[in-house]
């Protein structure tokens, strides 16, 4: 029986290994993590992450051929294939601070694998890592090998949160990078055989290590670039009276461009886009390519500009101050169908409003009060360290209350901001909300989920990103 072990029981490791266990019943899969509380959650009825379809998959396999354990060394020692899915946060100090990936956790994982291994192993990079990480890991393993052979593969994940299980069941492609040697080819074939249980062979792409690593960064950079492109156009739409939804639709019908990732919004978030672009920027700078680095930097600058523009629009529309005013925040996760708040635009928007002394009432169907308070009190990039190494949550931000109902959040509010495109926000009783808000009542739709005309008929002043502006908003221009 082939034994697979995955180091790291997070958003990537947990779902990926659950699906491998489901699709390969003759393979034993162990997911290990040094966080006992996280492992306990994976073994309970309340999984540590929310992902549609995940719970059903885990329950079918758990205890049969899928195991969650904090006995890291035992399972690594017994495994034939070790996936490494540990955190790769952005460095906050030292060389490359603010851009380079911090490989501390990767390096300690590699040293531990070398220490405990008693048989040959295939070690698979699953976390997003900078180009040439495999080479560094290979050196650590080789110099500590005690005669054991290690083959390093890169197998980047291309999951979208909210659809991760479907993405795993039916991937566009599975990418496997390895050394172009007979041993490397054999290792790639072993991993290919695992995926071939359910992925059509023509969708399993093999490449060299560096191409696989760079493909992951490039894919995320291209996707983020599309979002920043349409967000840049949304600012021009507001200035000219064009409608970004109509522009996006027209542009997306061109088969060379396509319709995906062309929805204007308050900005992109998630654990990968910003981190991977910063990483790409750093690699370009290290390789003497400043023009290429500056090109990718601009994608992040536009994303920051979009969030700032949204905050400025809120403040300027409400008589240039939100001091002491209650603002309802609907949605805190970075996108619908996930509880993930990493790099969510909601953090920057909330911090911008708090900076102007607003009182915030926040509702998200999947994000806990503890998580929201942590996010609003943490320094940038701290979120991407393992949870037990993150700073403990300091005292709660006083001007923030977290409620479990959209109507409670909006009661007596001067304005409401929609920051996540949860389906339920389309179907709220906005007449009831209007009746219970201070007047004039403002809606700032950062995801273009509501019918602006319908809300205007109720009496709201509505701002929708990239849409023609209310007369009121034209009279109170936002300065970005």
TrEMBL record:
Keyword annotations from UniProtKB, A to Z: NAD, Oxidoreductase
Binding site residues for NAD(+): 8-13, 33, 38, 86-90, 127-128, 161, 272-275, 342
Molecular functions (GO terms): NAD binding; UDP-glucose 6-dehydrogenase activity
InterPro entries, alphabetized: 6-PGluconate_DH-like_C_sf, NAD(P)-bd_dom_sf, UDP-Glc/GDP-Man, UDP-Glc/GDP-Man_DH_C, UDP-Glc/GDP-Man_DH_C_sf, UDP-Glc/GDP-Man_DH_dimer, UDP-Glc/GDP-Man_DH_N, UDPglc_DH_euk
Lineage: superkingdom: Eukaryota
Catalytic activity: UDP-alpha-D-glucose + 2 NAD(+) + H2O = UDP-alpha-D-glucuronate + 2 NADH + 3 H(+)
Gene Ontology biological process terms, A to Z: glycosaminoglycan biosynthetic process; UDP-glucuronate biosynthetic process
Active-site residues per Swiss-Prot or TrEMBL entry: 272 (nucleophile)
Pathway assigned to this chain's UniProt record: Nucleotide-sugar biosynthesis; UDP-alpha-D-glucuronate biosynthesis; UDP-alpha-D-glucuronate from UDP-alpha-D-glucose: step 1/1
Residues in UDP-glucose/GDP-mannose dehydrogenase C-terminal domain copies: 328-452
The EC number(s) this enzyme carries: 1.1.1.22
Enzyme class: oxidoreductase
GO CC terms of this entry: nucleus
Database matches in NCBIfam families: NDP-sugDHase
Classification via PANTHER family: UDP-GLUCOSE 6-DEHYDROGENASE 1 (PTHR11374:SF53), UDP-GLUCOSE DEHYDROGENASE/UDP-MANNAC DEHYDROGENASE (PTHR11374)
Family label: Belongs to the UDP-glucose/GDP-mannose dehydrogenase family.
Protein name: UDP-glucose 6-dehydrogenase
